[in-house]
């Protein structure tokens, strides 16, 4: 690209990354990047200390009492699979919102076939936010697990965890925080979140290929993968203690180093919720004034991204014109969440998604809206 793009695809991954991310990765690569926990020499101990310190920072960020209950994965998808496949039993009932990503729905479909689990979609408003008044009466048996996308990757709707927890106070909760970690305050202890899944590369501002899974020690979860951990090597059985039980194989050390740099930025600057909501509000306000544009995100000031469609134009055509003529990078289509689009009435064509991030400005938002207007008025 000849000039920097107007990047509004932060729901897919954040860009640009804070300078500390690259600096941390390069610093780790320029040192002796030995394998953590695989030797007793200084370089290996240095790597293990970096992993430990990053895990401690994450525990502080999400309110986890013990950092060993935080497991590094490849991303939100692997974290979700770890919980669903390691916790659910045959014939269990699972409650979900209508806005779940395929990272949740695809493993659940497999478990429906293999373990005969039951999946029930809870009643929600037009934007996909759970209706607490109707939710309790829906469950025909005691649910084994409640799975919620904290913030929808399709329309930016935010679930009211406190209200939902009052309806289901005892049901274990798996929170998909792919879009909310680094944006909204998360406190797994205070909000009674039993399982948390998120990635490093979105609002946590880190690299791809690193994820986080919080596992409440009150629940038994079988490992998704077994193998070498660098501990208890005299045994052929998987270690029973955390986090080793869930971290077989070599960790993505360079990615974790980058995440450490990203967390330093977040610690210094705080969560992004206010900034993202304000920019999203500007987007929705501007788009609402363009004839022929239909909005598919809440306009009550809570949405974390803007979703829209244009009468007579396919979403991919709109996105292509935005990039080609206006330098705007965004995400058209179904965003890997067909269930959400069915609920919103935008299936199968999908929408155009504009998702602002920490580095976007008011001027860029106005430019994006002007680009949409130009496309509509051609």
Write a compact overview of the structure shown.
This protein has 11 helices and 13 strands. It has 378 residues and is α/β, with parallel strands linked by helices.
Which key phrases capture this entry?
four-stranded antiparallel beta sheet, alpha/beta, Aspartate Aminotransferase, domain 1, 378 residues, seven-stranded mixed beta sheet, 2 domains, Aspartate Aminotransferase, domain 2, 11 helices
Order of helix and strand elements from N to C terminus: EHHEHEHEHEHEEEHHEEHEEHEH
- State the distance separating the first and last CA atoms: 25 Å
Text of the CATH class of the largest domain: Alpha Beta
Unreliable stretches covering 5 or more consecutive residues? none
Number of strands: 13
How big is the Rg? 21 Å
Beta-strand portion reads: 5-15%
CATH architecture of the largest domain: 3-Layer(aba) Sandwich
The CATH topology label of the largest domain is Aspartate Aminotransferase, domain 2
Helix/strand/pairing category: alpha/beta
Layout: helices, strands, pairs:
Blueprint: E1 6-7, H1 19-30, H2 42-62, E2 70-73, H3 76-87, E3 93-96, H4 102-115, E4 118-121, H5 132-138, E5 145-149, H6 161-167, E6 173-176, E7 195-199, E8 211-215, H7 253-269, H8 273-288, E9 293-295, E10 306-310, H9 315-326, E11 328-329, E12 331-333, H10 338-344, E13 351-354, H11 362-376
Parallel strand pairs: 1-11, 3-4, 3-5, 5-6, 6-7
Antiparallel strand pairs: 2-8, 7-8, 9-10, 10-13, 12-13
């Amino acid at each position: 690209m000849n000039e920097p793009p107007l990047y509004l695809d932060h729901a897919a991954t954040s860009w640009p990354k804070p300078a500390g991310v690259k600096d941390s990765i390069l610093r780790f690569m320029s040192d002796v990047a030995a394998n953590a926990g695989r030797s007793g020499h200084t370089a290996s101990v240095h790597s293990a200390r970096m992993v430990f310190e990053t895990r401690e920072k994450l525990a502080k960020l999400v309110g986890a009492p013990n950092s060993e209950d935080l497991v590094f994965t490849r991303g939100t998808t692997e974290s979700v699979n770890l919980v669903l496949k390691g916790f659910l039993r045959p014939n269990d009932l699972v409650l979900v919102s209508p806005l779940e990503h395929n990272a949740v729905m695809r493993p659940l479909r497999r478990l429906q076939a293999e373990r005969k689990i039951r999946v029930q979609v809870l009643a929600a408003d037009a934007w996909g936010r759970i209706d607490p008044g109707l939710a309790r009466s829906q469950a025909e048996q005691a649910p084994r697990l409640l799975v919620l996308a904290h913030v929808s990757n399709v329309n930016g709707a935010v679930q009211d965890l406190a209200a939902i927890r009052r309806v289901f106070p005892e049901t274990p909760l798996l929170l998909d925080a792919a879009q909310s970690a680094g944006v909204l305050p998360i406190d797994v202890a205070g909000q009674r979140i039993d399982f948390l899944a998120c990635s490093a590369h979105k609002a946590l501002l880190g690299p791809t290929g690193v994820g986080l899974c919080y596992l409440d020690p009150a629940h038994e979860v079988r490992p998704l993968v077994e193998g070498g951990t660098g501990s208890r090597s005299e045994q052929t059985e998987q270690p029973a203690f955390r986090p080793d039980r869930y971290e077989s194989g070599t960790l993505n050390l360079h990615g974790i180093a980058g995440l450490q740099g990203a967390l330093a930025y977040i610690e210094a600057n705080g969560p992004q919720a206010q900034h993202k909501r304000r920019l999203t509000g500007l987007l929705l306000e501007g788009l609402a004034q363009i004839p022929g544009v239909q909005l598919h995100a809440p306009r009550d000031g809570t949405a974390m991204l803007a979703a829209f469609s244009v009468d007579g134009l396919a979403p991919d055509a709109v996105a292509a014109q935005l990039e080609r003529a206006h330098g705007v990078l965004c995400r058209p289509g179904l965003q890997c969440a067909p269930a959400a689009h069915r609920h919103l009435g935008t299936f199968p064509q999908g929408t155009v998604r504009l998702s602002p991030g920490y580095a976007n400005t008011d001027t860029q938002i106005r430019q994006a809206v002007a680009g949409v207007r130009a496309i509509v008025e051609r």
